[in-house]
Amino acid sequence: MKDVTQTAATPEEFEARLRAIGAARYHDRHPFHHRLHGGGCTIDEVRAWVINRFYYQSRIPMKDAAFLSRVEDPTLRRIWRGRIEDHDGTAERPGGITRWLKLAEGVGLDPDYVLSCEGVMPATRFAVDAYVRYVRDEPLLKAVAASLTEMFAPAIHEERIAGLLKHYAFANQETTSYFRHRLSEAPREVAFGLQWVLDRATTLRDQDDAAAALTFKTEVLWAQLDALWGGYVAPGRIPPGAWQPGEALLPGARP
Fold first, then answer.
1. CB of 223 within 8 A of CB of 127?
2. DSSP code at position 233
């Protein structure tokens, strides 16, 4: 049983607690990422990852829009809506979704098929939709804290860029552009989001709630990779309705 007399951690101690969650639970530790970054994935395993990860990418601006609908502070709304533009883009510049579809083309997938979200694994839908509901329904502190997996993202993007360029013929400046842009976007988001959480999580209960939210988000990410591993690596049981190797390929793409 928790000691109810325990006091809240200092902001520095609490930040260290949040970072420790990432060190133990972030999906850079998952064997699928080790396989992908080390060049061990087949082209069909990469394609399955691109299709299923797109579902997550496509729901990020929807998640953020749901969050904004509950925010009364205009300053917070103004800052947060930049996240939507990072993914959806603007009339002047493409966003992360467009860049991800360039990756899909690069691995030989029909981008319209990827955009349709047909072929996404049921477990991917379940995990990602749970995250959208979480941000829509939970208190704002927990919703923001759940986004703090971005603290750990630049390292995985750097590793991914290097690994893809080294091991896969499809990798080039265009197909890795999503990850290169996130190297600058994610730290900007974290600088604001982390400080926002540290400023507001001033009680032990608030800190526990924020830590639980971040843990939940790491589980959302991990669950997606578990599903990919089981469906396309081992034992290789692709669930009904999910993408099958050979489907939705561009003309001339290698099966």
1. yes
2. I
Do the Cβ atoms of 65 and 81 come closer than 8 Å? no
Among 25, 236, 250, residue whose Cα is nearest residue 121 = 236
Which residue matches tokens 């902001």?
11
Are the C-beta atoms of 40 and 109 separated by less than 8 Å?
no
Tokens of 100: 């991800």
For 21-56, how does the pLDDT look when each residue is reduced to its tens digit (9 = 90+)? 999 999 999 999 999 999 999 999 999 999 999 999
pLDDT tens-digit series, residues 175-208? 999 999 999 999 999 999 999 999 999 999 999 9
Residues 6+ apart with CB under 8 A from 59: 128, 129, 131, 132
Alpha carbons 29 and 32: distance in angstroms, whole number: 9
Burial annotation 230-243 (CB, 10 A radius, 16+ → b, else e): bbbbeeeeeeeebb
Class of domain 11-231: mainly alpha
Helix axes 11-25, 204-228, angle to 10 degrees: 20
User: Does a cis peptide bond (omega within 30 degrees of 0) precede residue 235?
Assistant: yes
Residue of 174, 176, 148 lying closest to 160 (CA atoms): 176
Separation between Cα atoms, residue 159 and residue 156, nearest integer Å = 5
Residue in the structure block whose two tokens are 């990602």: 128
Whether 134 contacts 146, CB under 8 Å: yes
Phi, psi of 249 (to 5 degrees): -95, 150
Radius of gyration of the chain (CA): 19
Contact 177, 171 (CB under 8 A): no
